[in-house]
Amino acid sequence: MTNTSPTPPTSPASSASSRSPISRFPHLRQDFAASLVVFLVALPLCVGVAVASGVPAELGLITGIVGGIVTGLMRGSSLQVSGPAAGLTVLVFEAVREFGLPALGVIVLATGALQILMGALKLGRYFRAISVSVVEGMLAGIGLVLIAGQLYAMAGTEAPASGVAKLVELPGALVDSLGSTRALASLGLGAATIAVLVLWKRMPSRVRSVPGPLAAVGLATLAALVFSMPVATVEVKGLLDSVQPPPLSAFGDLLGLGLLGTVVAFTLIASAESLFSAAAVDRMHGGPRTAYDKELVAQGAGNALCGLLGALPMTAVIVRSAANVQAGARTKASRVLHGVWLLLFAALLPGALAYIPIPALAGILVYSGAKLIPVGQIVSLWRGHRGEALILVVTALSIVAVSMFEGVLIGLALAVAKTAWEASHIRLDVIDKGAGPVQAHLSGNATFLRLPKILDSLEALPQDRPVELDLSGLHHLDHACRTALESWAERHSAVGTEPVRMTAEPARPAAG
């Protein structure tokens, strides 16, 4: 008979240590594959946004790295991906041109600090209350300026400073490019890049496994090398050489109203774009929903670090986020890993950037700018909500004509005015039985905005008949309307008719 000794029990510690990485991270395979897809989408966009913003290409990669590793690790939205965004390109370019590159770090750092403060004060959820028409108008205006500016880059010429000049002088610049072989080569390469992006969705599924932006830039780079095309390429400085923390002297610029206004514009646009992106990403998957205040803190932490490094501002980017979800990502590990791949590329292969043609990057941004213009939404709003369509269009045109900050303020002012006008809806129903007093019933909100309409209707009542004015249907009666009604009643009674009787008047607000 064989004696068998009992098997000693396995301790919890030894059991945990013997678990495989797959059991500890059950979604690692899906997240790893998704991170590669997002990296391939983000790489050309990070470089393109930086070049279009007038800063070294490496600064776009730094922002992408911080957005992936730092913001990616924080709580908020589990699947959306952050990095440099085309939506801030115009504003960054204007800020660098006006205040200089050292001041960019101060602006981005202050933006991050404001975002952290707003998140700590639980203000993130209130960004969802911003009129959608204002946000879409803002993006449309950015898209128009971005398209116009990048068309100059595609032609190899310098773009004018103002948005209006970019649009007005564009036809002449394109005509002038027809007489230059170098400009024609540059323009043709940019146009071919756009064509690849437009047609990529129609390619076989196996081909489409390569992200469209990467394919477009890769093909353009290959064509420029094979045919020795005389086009400008990205200038490379090296990752560490591009890091420029803002000097202490640059922080003194925060006392100026111009720079403070730019900080407010950065904060408003970056926060709104990130939180609207989070809402869109939530609709794409069935996982945990976004905690808006925590996401705002995460965005602020990322921007604060980008500011300290002198890099571009970051937002959550819907293109990268959608690619992440569609590639099968399950947890935040995918976006963190995409930041790791960007870091490895920037550290090990920075020289590869020098082969990328600038017209190809400009073509990608023209395509991205076109997607920011919601043509279908404008048509839909015009059919059902013309006031909202007007706000969208005016906001976009104001950004082109004036500036980003002023254009957004004009859009917000229009949205508030429209809401106030609609809230002051009032109705007057008149019952005249031919004999006895005329009965008039006011309902709705009697505010000074509708005072002319109220008085016109009341003054049209017969002067030789007594009037009973019923105010029981009013939800609100402001001081201007109350005074005007009392004056009208005195005038109506002054011609010898029976005094106007006002019944069920809303209670006056308590004094003090």
Which key terms come to mind for this protein?
about 500 residues; alpha/beta; four-stranded mixed beta sheet; two-stranded antiparallel ribbon; 22 helices; about 60% helix; about 5% strand; elongated
Q: What is this entry, summarized?
A:
The protein is α/β, with parallel strands linked by helices. It is built from 22 helices and six strands. The strands form two sheets. A four-stranded mixed β-sheet has the order 3-4-5-6, covered by helices on one side.
Q: Could you please describe the fold and organization of this structure?
A:
- The protein is α/β, with parallel strands linked by helices and 512 residues long.
- It is built from 22 helices and 6 strands.
- A 4-stranded mixed beta sheet has the order 3-4-5-6, with helices on one face. Strands 1-2 form a two-stranded antiparallel sheet.
- Helix 4 packs antiparallel against helix 14, helix 5 (89-99) packs across helix 6 (101-120) and helix 6 (101-120) crosses helix 13 (257-282).
- The model is unreliable at 13-18 (pLDDT under 50).
- Keywords: Membrane, Transmembrane, Transmembrane helix.
- Residues 1-11 have a biased composition (Pro residues).
- This is SulP family inorganic anion transporter.
- Residues 1-20 are annotated as: Disordered.
